[in-house]
Amino acid sequence: MAHPGFFLAVETAGTGAHPASWRRADSRAEDLFTGQYWVDLIVAAEQAGLDAVFLPDSFGVQPGGPGVTRGRLDAVAIAARVAAATHRIGLIPQAPVTHTEPFHLAKAIQSLDFATLGRAGWEVSVSEGDEQARAFGRKPAQDPAALWHEADEAIEVVTRLWDSWEDDAEIRDAPTGRFVDRDKLHYIDFTGDNFAVKGPSITPRSPQGQPIVAVRADDAADTEIALRRADLIRIGARDLDAARARRGELRSALTAAGRDPDSVRVLLDLDVHLADTADAAAAELRTMDGWAAPLPEATALRHLGTAETLRAVLAAVDSAEAADGVVLRPLALPAVVGLLSALDRKPLPAGTFRDRLGLPRPASRYAASTEGSPS
């Protein structure tokens, strides 16, 4: 089994990553658009000792036609619903920046960090293609370079807004009638190619100061932003050798960019289906494939087996230094999550998400200066 520092998360995509997973008798597809479905899954992941849950989201309808799960709830709203039912697991909703104002995103993730007492993260994504652009009607579709340049600016705005209240800005001084010290609120005065935001945030600085930021590194455009901005970098690879090489490339690039590579976790995606035996897991996948051919996937490892064989795979990833952790992507979500307790992970420690990652709580970048404070 991987050592306690090995990070393990699960991605909760609908009824599962397989497009026909909703047809399984145990899929709970009828509950997919209820809060209890998500509470049950994520509480089970927490009880199994997983460090975090990734909640995917998009402004586009899932491709594949009427034979696949279509429609989705807002990931940040799901995380907020689950916040009160969980106590230690990190919650990382995906929130696209392309058609969303960074001021709104900053406030939403800060609020989630308050609701979870410091367990919030944000997976940054962009909205590609004409369909999502037409859904908003504000601007045409952008190429990857433009999308990720905009995302880079959005992350800068969000993180500045997270810092715009100093930690001790709330003074709640009843005798003088002052709730906040206005000298400890700061304009961010950001002007870029896509945004001009004065600030400050309307939300006080949250428990982590800076919630955890995750970015995928699939191509040159998003990798550049991941290297500059991410605490967690997600990768896909066909085998452990490719994953180890990719992790090495990213660590070298982090060093070249002036960042400590040990302060960033590289997480490997692993598609997984579990059953009581490996043969049963393979047979169940064949059944799902017979219902609907799987959609083309990016390069990703896949494991079909049992909780015991999955333990061996995680240990192999760890010992090969192929990644600092794994993000499980269950092909049939309720079925796999129900078996994760057999991984025998230690209970999660108390504390913030940053505590678990061994990252310090950063000071506000504005704390040493009173310039730009609202009057």
Task: Chart the SSEs and their pairings.
Elements: E1 7-11, H1 35-47, E2 52-55, H2 75-83, E3 90-96, H3 102-115, E4 121-125, H4 130-136, H5 144-163, E5 170-173, E6 178-180, E7 190-191, E8 196-197, E9 212-216, H6 220-229, E10 232-235, H7 240-256, E11 265-274, H8 278-291, E12 301-305, H9 307-319, E13 325-330, H10 333-337, H11 353-357
Parallel strand pairs: 1-2, 1-13, 2-3, 3-4, 4-9, 9-10, 10-11, 11-12, 11-13
Antiparallel strand pairs: 5-6, 7-8
Helix pairs in contact: 2-3, 3-5, 5-6
List keywords for this structure.
375 residues, alpha/beta, eight-stranded parallel beta barrel, two-stranded antiparallel sheet, 11 helices, globular
User: By helix and strand content, what is the structural category?
Assistant: alpha/beta
Query: Which percent range describes the beta-strand content?
Result: 15-25%
Spans of at least 5 consecutive residues with low confidence: none
Number of strands: 13
Oligomer: single chain
Name the helicity range.
25-40%
User: What spatial form do the alpha-carbon principal axes imply?
Assistant: globular
What's the gyration radius in Å?
A: 21 Å
Our measurement of the CA-to-CA distance between the termini, rounded to an integer number of angstroms, reads 56 Å
Number of helices: 11
Strand order of the largest sheet: 1-2-3-4-9-10-11-13
Average pLDDT figure:
92
Order of helices and strands: EHEHEHEHHEEEEEHEHEHEHEHH
Biggest sheet statistics: 8 strands, parallel, barrel
